[in-house]
């Protein structure tokens, strides 16, 4: 059975709605049609009601085993490295490079590097003759990066090419280019050290006297530049990050079209605005976790929280990137989801990229080594399929058996304690948190239960065919027995629901030339253990933006001590989806709950329909002291004046985001403390906040 046949079966199976029937599925090899008989739906309903994933998997296993003969052989073809294709792409890059089309040349060289055969990451000694196409790819890409004045990127590519090059003259030329880069970034001491090496290399090269003399003159000039530079001291860098150059309405004033590929920002995530919570370190001390039978786990404020305060920072337990364009290399790091214009390849496949050697080593060890043989097929199963697969392969089979045995003993203890390890800490990188994610398995549509079960069944076959999960103690692959298959398959069903219910769409902000937010563009998906503990509200008190695969949550309003802190699930904020019926339907279809937040219970009007009057929340506060009334009125008038000024300037070329973010937060704090909601002016402030705040995370300049 190939993957296409599986999906044909799955789609027909959904339409059937589990009535007794016979489904015909044609194998990819077209030997003969195979009939798969499905039992009555009552049995499957009972599995779902009981949350019995093991019996559900056995049920599927028996259906397939009796009629298809397990193990199934999925028709998975792994894209391989191709030296001929790599050389072809490099030659195409050379042609456009000669025509000064630097961005197009860079893209060709990126693809060339992805396609070139690559040494294993564990190799300490590399046969340079074997990886000539990769060495040339890095060398040629460094030339483009040098022309674009991306010197740090250029230096990294030069080091990679030097380590792989077999030609001494090529190594010399690359070292010489590296000296130019080091001088450009004012690293004169390093440049001097390399110049000494270059002089020694030059003596050993078999060159004509005139060529050798020419190189000697160049080295002398570089040495003089180093001496002059060191004597003058640091000077202001000429080349800035292109993202930082976007300061006016006409971005072309600052950089050419070739530079646009570098006009992005991968900012370092901010720190919490308070000490970490000792039990849940991803939260600040301003937050605490509680539990009730009707709500489950939920987050409350332990003190008053101001608008804009960073209350949670967490790296995803599992995340996956999506390509920006079909049939083009990813420009997002597979491990951290940072944007990378000059990426590193996977050592085995041409399908994923990494932003640097550290991310590649971590990503390879954590998940990609085990998924690489089946990655192309895995992509077809979507983010919850990839997430479930990666959740499993993060541990060995034996480790999973030990952990799950322990977790099953803890299934009846308080949900507050289930997510805590032996040190009573909720670890965002622990499988425990993934195992105990809340899900809607028992309340989901029966078709979804069956669909997730079938996907888990296919993922189990992928684990077998990868030959990298079911391994003996000596590292040799083995065919698992029914017990092992059922154990893993049942976990995959569980994770399909846990991850599918709790995943976050990871996005990046794309900006216009006038520095304004255009749209939030999806770039991946992630599961965050601590962030999943927040409950939903259509008028959230917290909002998340992303720094790669790190989620940063800020308060969107004044949150009194003891109040619950909410996020908005699935972009169902009241401001974005004013119609209560639509919001509730989205939430019910996705999460199987009826929303009873204030905007839904009170059926708040659309922001545009709200009367722009201000009603004070606590009238007793005004009655008690006339000075309070005067002070409040003065503060309100001042804020209104400043907001009106901001409305005029927000679309201007030199709009200063940081200063106005402070004003927006100050104004929101005032409204949340004193004014009755909903209020049209408060809605406008929220809109400004949602416009400005995402700019602090991952951003990319986009022409429109």
UniProtKB/TrEMBL annotation:
Phosphoprotein found in the keyword field: no
Keyword Repressor in record: no
PROSITE patterns: ZF_MYND_1, ZF_MYND_2
GO MF entry, a single one: S-adenosylmethionine-dependent methyltransferase activity
Annotated keywords: Metal-binding, Methyltransferase, S-adenosyl-L-methionine, Transferase, Zinc, Zinc-finger
GO cellular component terms given for this protein: cytoplasm; nucleus
Biological processes per GO annotation: methylation
Residues annotated as domain MYND-type: 333-372
Name the UniProt record assigns to this protein: MYND-type domain-containing protein
